[in-house]
Design brief:
about 220 residues; Protein Transport Mog1p, Chain A; 2 domains; 7-stranded antiparallel beta sheet; 5 helices; about 20% helix
C-alpha cells in the first residue's frame, strides 16, 4: 500500500458535489489518478516523486464559516487539525486568492525516519468549501536541511547546545505547546528563508505548490 493511502487528512468529511466534478487542474508533471479505495469522494494527482495533491469539498462552508466566529483562531484550529493527523503545525495564515479569501496552513508528520509535509488550502466556492491537500515526503538521505542549519546557527551564536531541545523545535504560535512529539514540531530550519537553499526539500516543495496551485485551477461550475 502506498504511503499516501495511509495519510489522509483529518476531518472535515468530504462530500460529492458538482463543484468538485467541474474542477480542472493543469499542472506540468502531475497526473490524475482514479481513486477507488476510499469512502469519501476526492480527486487525486500524483507526480514522479509520489507527492500528492488531493482535492475534496466540504458541505455548508463547514470550515470557512468559522472565520466569522469571534473566538475562532485559524492557528488554534490548524494546530489541532495537525495533531489529529499525528503532526505539528509549521505555519498558518489567511490569504487572498482569485477565488476569494482562503485559509492556508502547513504541518509535519513522521513516517519512520522521514518527515512528511502537508500543505492545506481551503476556500469557499458555490455552497461548499474546496479543500486542497498537498503531501510531500522526504526521500533518500533525511535530515540534511536540519543538520546544515543547526550547525550554522550554533556557529553564528544564535543557538546554544544547552538550549537546543527547548527552542529548536516548537509550535510557532504557542512555544509551550507539547501536545505532539517534538520531532513533528516546527524546527528553526523550517523557516521559509531557507527554502531557496534547499529547493528539493519537501517543505520547500509544499510551499511552492501552495503558491502555484490556485492559478492552475479552474471550475466549469
Amino acid at each position: 500500500m502506498r504511503w499516501w493511502r495511509r495519510n489522509r487528512p483529518a476531518r472535515p468529511v468530504m462530500v460529492s458535489d458538482p463543484t468538485l466534478e467541474s474542477l480542472r487542474l493543469s499542472l506540468d508533471g502531475w497526473s490524475e489518478q482514479k481513486v477507488t479505495d476510499v469512502s469519501e469522494p476526492v480527486r487525486l494527482w500524483i507526480d514522479g516523486d509520489e507527492s500528492t495533491i488531493t482535492i475534496g469539498v466540504v458541505k455548508d462552508h463547514y470550515v470557512t464559516a468559522r472565520r466569522s466566529t469571534p473566538s475562532w483562531s485559524l492557528q488554534h484550529w490548524a494546530r489541532f487539525f495537525a495533531r489529529d493527523s499525528g503532526g505539528g503545525l509549521i505555519e498558518a495564515d489567511h490569504i487572498e486568492l482569485t477565488f476569494g479569501p482562503a485559509l492556508r496552513f502547513i504541518f509535519k508528520t513522521r513516517e519512520h525516519l522521514a518527515s512528511m509535509y502537508h500543505g492545506q488550502l481551503c476556500f469557499a466556492r458555490n455552497d461548499v468549501d474546496v479543500f486542497i491537500s498537498v503531501v510531500c515526503k522526504e526521500l533518500g538521505t533525511t535530515g540534511v536541511r536540519e543538520a546544515v542549519i543547526t550547525a550554522e546557527l550554533i556557529e553564528q551564536g544564535r543557538l546554544d547546545l544547552k538550549e537546543y531541545r527547548r527552542i529548536f523545535a516548537r509550535d510557532p504560535y504557542d512555544p509551550g505547546y507539547d501536545g505532539v512529539d517534538q520531532s513533528v514540531l516546527r524546527f528553526m530550519s523550517d523557516d521559509e528563508t531557507y527554502d531557496s537553499r534547499f529547493p528539493d526539500h519537501p517543505l520547500s516543495k509544499v510551499r511552492r505548490l501552495l503558491a502555484v496551485l490556485p492559478p492552475a485551477i479552474a471550475f466549469d461550475a
